[in-house]
Amino acid sequence: MKKSIFRIALFTLIAFSLVYACAPKVEVETAPTSLASTVLSIEYSDAANLRSQLAYGTIKLADTPNAVTPEQAKSMIPLWQAVISLSGDTTTATEELTAVQDQITAALTAEQLQAIAEMKITNAGLNVFYAEYGIVLPTPIPGVTKVPGSGGGKTAEEKAAAEATKTAAGETTGTGQSAKTLLFEKTIEYLTGVSGQ
Question: What whole-number distance in Å separates Cα of residue 182 and Cα of residue 172?
Fold first, then answer.
């Protein structure tokens, strides 16, 4: 009797294994996190984030065959204004910014997006852009993880002296909201000029 139960259990196990092995595989297709990520990449050394690539790339398209048209500029101005507004709101969900970013991406042609992708915009390149406006952004050292509280060994006087030196040189650190949105503001200025508004 025990051998019969064992054989039945073994047969059932083998049968289920065969059915499972022969069943068609269901592939779950995951949607990209954003429309921009279908064309632009952050998979190269020092790659800027997608939103910054779109903004800086749009400006860099000027005086090329892929320059933004006045009609495109008019449609993108309120979208970049929304990016600035949402970026300044601490309650903004990432999905909201991504949705606006997708609308900006959709406003550009495939050729324009490809041209931006080929620029391979880096954080170092953006730092040069920011430096033109007197903003110095902290840049991470490749392969080094920042330790919270590092640099805390400075006295209050040393920190104040360093800040005063930067201010005297006309530099601001990239921690304020204006530093975070400067690129987007300059994109709006460029688009306003193109649109003729």
Answer: 12
Burial class of 182 by CB neighbour count within 10 A (0 to 12, 13 to 18, 19+)? buried
Q: Where are the domains of the chain?
A: 32-122+180-195
3-class DSSP state of 137:
coil
**What is residue 146's predicted lDDT score, i.e. its pLDDT?**
44
CA distances 107 to 80, 97, 104, 110, Å, are 12, 16, 5, 10
CA gap 85, 148 in Å, rounded:
29
Question: Per-residue pLDDT for 184 more than 90?
Answer: yes
For the purposes of burial, counting CB atoms within 10 Å of the CB of 59, is it exposed (0-12), middle (13-18) or buried (19 or more)?
middle
CA-based radius of gyration for the chain: 26
* Average pLDDT for 33-41: 85
pTM of the model: 0.65
CB 104 within 8 A of CB 39: no
pLDDT band at 23; cut points 50, 70, 90: low
| CA atoms of 158 and 61, how far apart (whole Å) | 43
**pLDDT at residue 89 in the model:** 86
Q: DSSP character for 121?
A: -
